[in-house]
Design goal:
The protein has one domain: 3-Layer(aba) Sandwich (Glutaredoxin), CATH 3.40.30.10. Helices cover about 45% and strands about 20% of the residues. It is of the alpha+beta class. A hairpin with a 4-residue loop joins strand 3 and strand 4.
Length: about 130
């Protein structure tokens, strides 16, 4: 940062402005079988790996969690335990992929269906639910 940028930051901070710092209000949790579920692999390819999706999550400050249940890849016992706890907490029924939008109080807002949408369509679906909160 230059001296001018630092000075501007402190001036804005003094005046009560912030520089896009906000608390995470939402979480997106994806239950997946990353190495065997064809729809999970498609979701990864068409949505989760896209820069537009990552930019959307960053812009909206959405916390993103993957809860993976692979068949070939070995998870640590800690990861298996964590995944089981999250699955139990959100009453995961075993349908892959399952995508949950959760609010800041850990309440389920919406189960997002993945139906081979592209990144933009998936983002629009999430955005429509966020704007209602």
């Amino acid at each position: 940062m230059t001296k001018n940028q630092i000075l501007l930051f402190f001036i804005l901070l003094t005046l009560g402005f912030t520089t896009n710092v906000q608390d995470t209000k939402f979480k997106l949790i994806v239950f997946e079988g990353s190495d065997w579920c064809s729809n999970c692999i498609r979701l990864e390819k068409n949505v989760l790996s896209k820069l537009s999706f990552e930019a959307f999550l960053n812009d909206k400050n959405i916390d993103f969690k993957r809860v993976d249940f692979p068949q070939r890849k070995q998870l640590s016992e800690l990861d298996k335990k964590r995944n089981a706890e999250i699955a139990e907490k959100y009453n995961f029924k075993g349908a892959f992929p399952t995508v949950l939008l959760i609010d800041e109080s850990s309440n389920l807002i919406f189960t997002i269906p993945y139906q081979s949408q592209n990144s933009e369509a998936f983002i629009s679906l999430i955005q429509s639910k966020i704007s209602l909160k």
